[in-house]
Amino acid sequence: MSQALRNSFKNEPLKDFSLEENRRGVLSALAQVESIIRSGGFTATPIIDGRLITTSDISTRTDPSNTQVVVGKTHFARTEDAALAISSCVSGLKTWGRRPYTERAAIIEKIGLLMRERANALTALIIREAGKTWREADADVAEAIDFCLYYAEEMLRLGPPHLTERVLGEENHYFYQPRGVVAVIAPWNFPLAIACGMTVAALVCGNTAILKPSEQTSLIAHEFAKLAYEAGLPAEAFSYLPGRGEEVGRALVESPDVSMIVFTGSRPVGLEIIRSASSVPPGQIGIKKVVAELGGKNAIIVDEDADFDDAIRGVLQSAFGFAGQKCSACSRLIIVGDAYEPFLARLAAATSDLVVSPALDPASFYGPVVDQESHTRITNLIASATDLTTLVQGTVPETLRETGWYIPPTIFRDVPLNHPVFREEIFGPVIAAVQAKSFNEALTIANDCAYALTGGVFSRNPEHLEIAKTEFQVGNLYINRGITGALVCRQPFGGFKFSGVGSKAGGKDYLLQFMEPRTITENTMRRGFTPDLNS
Ligand code: NAD
């Protein structure tokens, strides 16, 4: 185990693309990805017990920035493949689950270090497969590395059994053991970071894991899987199982041999998983544990005395970074009192200045949404909101309209508080703005929400900031800054209410969810052993 892991965790720095050297690295990786695309594209197959499984259900992934381009193809697993993966992981528990925690941590650390070496290649594939801009793709890779190094270090802290108390005549040891086979079900919006983070957390604790990535981003998850084996992860510890959620995802959730499901995704699917995991099929040996990180409908409050320059930047970045497709994205804007009109005027001007461009463009801040389904859903939602007043809608350049899944940034104003645009997660580049009479009313509006994930306040009033700290009911509250981009360790991430159940990812409590704590109490007042009884 590298010494570097002991209490030395530092976040992976984000790349500064104003430096030519950093730009060159990604450009050359993009050129390599392009040459793979030209010669037929990437191919991913399920990997079970080290074997590549080909199937006849082949899913084609096109580039969201240019839908004429096929990035690659994935052989989707079938229900019977899920059964094979589960059985491989059940037997893997006997070996991987018994490996010393230091060895497991060393392998997870190695995965992180290999990702650091291949960061440009991973970034380039995320740009093409998920339609993330350079900056967003780079942050995705950096977060994945952080998860590996942080959880490896955390395992060193949690691994050794410890004495609970010193008492005469009795020893009490407290320690953790793995839960069993963990199904990891991931979303597409942080296609590497979240898939990797949930998987390595399960593995470092001694569980075996099956990664079911999102249908849209199976290729980058495949790169992660290959890299994990290369880092020394044994075949029986981990299976890569791309496929359809309703098919293989469901098969994993319903299996009696799966002990834990760690899910990040939408509220309806999360609730369905929690419901399904609570019914007990024959042969199941215990209660399934479910960790579910779900959606958000996150608000930023702009106070009357807010610094508008900061607030405009914070709102734009939080609402329109990755075209609003982040669980942490700002989608409700609550502006206090007289700040309403001047703030909206400046925000409207700044929004119309946003340039919509392909993710491939190094200067792109605002690219496409992930696929046709999202494009249709969000476009229809905007078009059907005829009862709302549009403050501003950006434009998609003529040349891009037919080439990719672009949606202009859109802001509605004076939105009724009971309107679905104000209440439901859209997961796209749409802001619903309202005016509040006072700061307290702004907080009441913000808290009247099914979700409690992120929230933000721009204010220079110390009293208001103190009230917000206690009263703003969100998992991650940001003051006078944007509300996305939580860093592993520094800003452990996750919400409550319908934003999910579980401890924050990238925080001190996260790994505890993947282990069963045990206590062993031994009476040490005994008068001696009786070795002859054992013979
Ligand atoms: P989704 O719920 O559609 O899919 C997530 C995963 O679940 C996919 O792998 C999918 O194949 C699988 N799935 C679908 N149906 C299933 C079923 N019946 N059984 C088992 N698995 C099934 O979500 P998405 O569109 O990929 O991601 C967007 C959502 O994720 C948004 O709601 C967003 O807010 C949320 N999200 C939350 C966080 C967080 O940390 N709280 C982070 C990222 C994304």
Describe the secondary structure blueprint for this structure.
Elements lengths: L19 H19 L3 E3 L2 E2 L2 E2 L5 E6 L2 E10 L3 H18 L4 H17 L1 H12 L3 H25 L3 E2 L6 E9 L2 E5 L7 H12 L3 E5 L5 H13 L7 E3 L4 H10 L5 E5 L2 H11 L11 E5 L4 E5 L5 H13 L9 E7 L3 H13 L19 H13 L4 E5 L4 H4 L8 E4 L6 H4 L6 E7 L2 H9 L3 E2 L1 E5 L3 H10 L4 E4 L16 E2 L2 E2 L13 E9 L7 H4 L1
Parallel strand pairs: 1-5, 8-9, 8-11, 9-10, 11-12, 13-14, 13-19, 14-17, 16-17, 19-20
Antiparallel strand pairs: 2-3, 4-5, 6-7, 7-23, 12-22, 15-16, 18-21
Bound molecules: nicotinamide-adenine-dinucleotide (NAD).
Nicotinamide-adenine-dinucleotide binds next to helix 8 and helix 9.
Report the radius of gyration as a whole number of Å: 24 Å
Q: Could you say which small molecules are bound to this protein?
A: nicotinamide-adenine-dinucleotide
CATH topology of the largest domain: Aldehyde Dehydrogenase, Chain A, domain 1
Distance between the termini: 39 Å
Number of strands: 23
Unreliable residue runs? none
Strand count, sense and closure of the main sheet? 7 strands, mixed
Number of helices: 17
Spatial arrangement of strands, main beta sheet: 15-16-17-14-13-19-20
The portion of residues assigned to helices is 25-40%
Please name the CATH architecture of the largest domain: 3-Layer(aba) Sandwich
Q: Indicate the overall shape.
A: globular
Indicate the proportion of strand residues: 15-25%
CATH uppermost class of the largest domain = Alpha Beta
Number of domain units:
2
**How would you name the CATH homologous superfamily of the largest domain?**
Aldehyde Dehydrogenase, Chain A, domain 1
Q: What average pLDDT do the residues reach?
A: 96
